[in-house]
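TA notes. Do not distribute before section.
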Amino acid sequence: MKRGLLLIDRGSREKEVRQELEVICRKIKEKGNYEFSNYCFLEVIPPFIEEGINQSLTHDIDELTIVPYFLYPGKKIKAAVNESIGFQEKTSVKFRITKPMSMHKTMIELVHNRITSTLSENSVNIPADAVDILIIGHGSKDPNAKRSMEYIVDGIKSGYRNVSSCFLEIEEPNIEQGILKCKNDNPEVLVVVFYFLHEGAHVKRDIYEDLNPALEKANLQKVIITRHIGTDEKMINLVLERAREVEDAN
């Protein structure tokens, strides 16, 4: 059985996003024994889904595993899946469409690892149960997206003093409100987690436009910020696990 794999990402003009996706696809191909692994975008810039699928079908494969590479369930995933399904009738190659990256224990482990490594890198040596955590996500109108964030918060909260979340846009609490809540908890150390897949515009600029003035106003004792998710090996393994779920289904 010859298989290829196609990631569908939201899309970004930032070169770092493409660089990260190229690394991810290379590792997926190597570890997953695929004929190829590539990516396309739902929106913003090409290659869009049609181009991604058409390019995939130029390869000699029996099946194409399509991975909606999103942290949250919602309208964008539904759009990506529906557009992909529309191409199935035009080819004899069997499409296998996976679940997104949300609501999986790997994401809990990854967030925990980001926190512990950031504490270590900043020489913070207090017990974990004395550390406060604020997770910043994107935000969505879909209620399932908020539930996926609650899943992460619930998954790590037993290990830290306080764990809360806020959102860059669309829903509340926003970043200013999130920092205010943390200030009221009077943290000794606050770790801010950037719960974003890529080093796109949000991670490079947009978050800081709200975060910096909120932190200046709050005047907290010590605040450290984690890296985004990026090319973490756990994400490679999660993509492969999601792929195997549908490839081994029948």
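Switch to the second chain here.
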Amino acid sequence: MPPIVSEEYKVNRKKLILESALKCFAEKGFELATIDDICARSGMSKGSIYNYFKTKEDIYIQLMNEQTRENFEYFKEAFLTITTATEKLQFLLKTYREVSLTEAFKNLTLVHGEFWLSTSRKKEIRSIMLERYQNVYIRFVKEILDEGKANGEFKHDFDSSVIATLFWTYIDGICLDYAVIGNEYPYCEIFRQTEAMIFSLILKRD
């Protein structure tokens, strides 16, 4: 009889693959990192890795989904003690503004940008990425904006979906600029100016 493999064993093996892949992607970039690199880092065979993931893209998507889940669980928990839509947006911007600007942050930002570009012509993966962007990121900020409209904090004459898209466009762009330019880029000040610009578009004025 074949050996019985517990669910805990499977979870731990999958976790090892993901952790190893993340290090490989950060060191080499998504395109240059290979399944062989992940094998060497994890000590697992190709066959073992393919038992859990069909492709390198599948591995990255799993990593991305787990990071997204952790981020939004953190935001939602923080929002339990935040009462206004304005404060929620400020908290989101503050979280990204005060991120630790390490080499790991820069490398992973570049990897994510590289993944977006390298898979943009692959219809199935592009669909997954767009679904995540629209139904997680855009929806999350849109709901905050709609809340602010409903309780009288924000104007009613803007499109919440457009401003939500603008919100993430700024954040993605600032993070990518920093990853490319490095410490010469005025990361925190750009975030402060971006925050002022966004609130000038949405806040009601007395």
